[in-house]
Design goal:
This protein is an alpha+beta fold. It has two domains: about 240 residues, 3-Layer(aba) Sandwich (Aminopeptidase), CATH 3.40.630; about 110 residues, Alpha-Beta Plaits (2-Layer Sandwich). The protein contains nine helices and 17 strands. The strands form three sheets. Strands 1, 2, 3, 6, 7, 8, 14, 15 and 16 form a nine-stranded mixed β-sheet that branches. A five-stranded antiparallel β-sheet has the order 10-11-12-9-13. A hairpin with a 2-residue loop joins strand 4 and strand 5. Helix 5 crosses helix 6 and helix 7 crosses helix 9. The longest helix is centred in the last third of the chain and has 22 residues. The chain starts with a helix and ends with a helix. The relative contact order is 0.20. The structure holds zinc ion.
């Protein structure tokens, strides 16, 4: 039923269009055209997200399928290479299967629905911008009225659904000491780099428990070897499946900064920002039943898992639409070794078509 040649062609077309975060214009144009040709009502919002509606003829739960248009870097001038069942990049860029495989599969699903006149309830399609920049596009979406959502944006065997994702906070700390000539009067300075080293030595970083992780990812400071540095900027993040734990650990990090800087005579400006909140769909029996039935009907295993990463599904869930993340077949994403199997893309498309068919059962 799925036309694998058309699916691959769509995917190749998409990855060849540069769309690093913030530069989704060309791919958006391409998608608007395809969606219009397919007969959907297509609209854009100010942020550049695409909304399209397929008006179904039967009743049943209404659903949304979503994927993001942007890619991480290096994503310019991608040259896809097909070898047998595998598609990869030529090695010096990502492939962009994250998340163009999701988009190609959604489009192929729509082609098949039209071609085979498959009856289904109404379907909303959303393609977002700047997902890789902290879900910036999805956060600007208008409220949508649907019963369930499916975000095509994870790896793993087809049939894998993400039902739990973490709350994510990022933080920024500026440690302020006092500069002085390092050769003549170092005792008059307060070395911000040394103060930070004491903070980091006393912070719990990495895996905190089975639900919680923390990271310091950026450190910037100092200007010359003969100057006692007076400023260091540190950026990091904390994630947890538990909203309480994420707050608790963030507080721990903040108080360690305060305590250690104070001991050393430095000051600290600490700012934290909530990027997105967790979801847990283990109680959404109807939604999970649809996923399970879809898996069974195409002969793949239904697997429910939790993730340490965020996606647009965090935003949809927050807005009250129970939304799972499903595998597109993408693998080794965010690296130049990224690849995808054509057979997995076909299977993922069969899976979402099965979801559509199960809606009216
Ligand atoms: Zn993605």
């Amino acid at each position: 039923m799925v036309n694998s040649k058309r699916l691959v062609n769509t995917f190749i077309d998409l990855v060849k269009i540069d769309s690093e975060s913030g530069n989704e214009k060309k791919v958006r144009k391409y998608l608007q055209n395809v969606l219009c040709e397919l007969g959907l009502d297509v609209a854009l919002d100010k942020k550049g997200n695409i909304y399209a509606i397929y008006h179904g003829k039967v009743t049943g739960p209404s659903v949304l399928f979503s994927a993001h248009m942007d890619t991480v870097i290096p994503g310019k001038g991608i040259v896809p290479v097909i070898k047998g069942d595998r598609i990869s990049s030529s090695g010096d860029t990502i492939l962009g299967g994250d998340d163009k495989s999701g988009i190609a599969e959604i489009l192929e699903m729509l082609f098949v629905i039209k071609e085979k006149e498959i009856s289904s309830p109404s379907i909303v399609i959303i393609f977002t911008v700047e997902e890789e920049q902290g879900l910036k596009g999805a956060k600007e979406l208008q409220q949508i009225q649907v019963d369930y959502g499916f975000v095509l944006d994870t790896s793993g065997d087809i049939g894998t659904v993400v039902i739990k994702a973490p709350t994510h906070y990022s933080f920024k700390a500026e440690v302020i000491g006092k500069s002085a000539h390092a050769g003549i009067e170092p005792e008059k300075g307060v070395n911000a780099i040394v103060a930070v080293s004491k903070v980091i030595a006393n912070c719990k970083i990495g895996r905190i428990d089975d639900e919680t992780v923390a990271n310091i990812g950026i450190i910037e400071g100092g200007s010359a070897t003969n100057i006692v540095p007076d400023r260091v900027l540190i950026k990091g993040e904390v994630r947890s499946l538990s909203k309480q734990k994420v707050k608790k650990h963030l507080e721990d990090i903040k108080s360690t900064f305060k305590k250690e800087c104070q001991k050393y005579g430095a000051k600290v400006d600490f700012e934290a920002k909530k990027d997105y909140i967790s979801f847990d769909l283990s109680g959404e029996k109807e939604l999970l039943k649809i996923c399970k039935k879809a898996s069974q009907s195409i002969g793949v295993k239904h697997v429910e898992k939790s993730t340490g990463g965020g996606s647009d599904a965090n935003v949809f869930n927050k807005s009250g639409i129970p939304t799972v993340v499903i595998s597109t077949g993408m693998s080794k994403v965010h690296t130049c070794d990224e690849e995808i199997k054509i057979s997995d893309m076909v299977k993922a498309t069969e899976y979402i078509l099965a979801i559509v068919k199960k809606l009216k059962d």
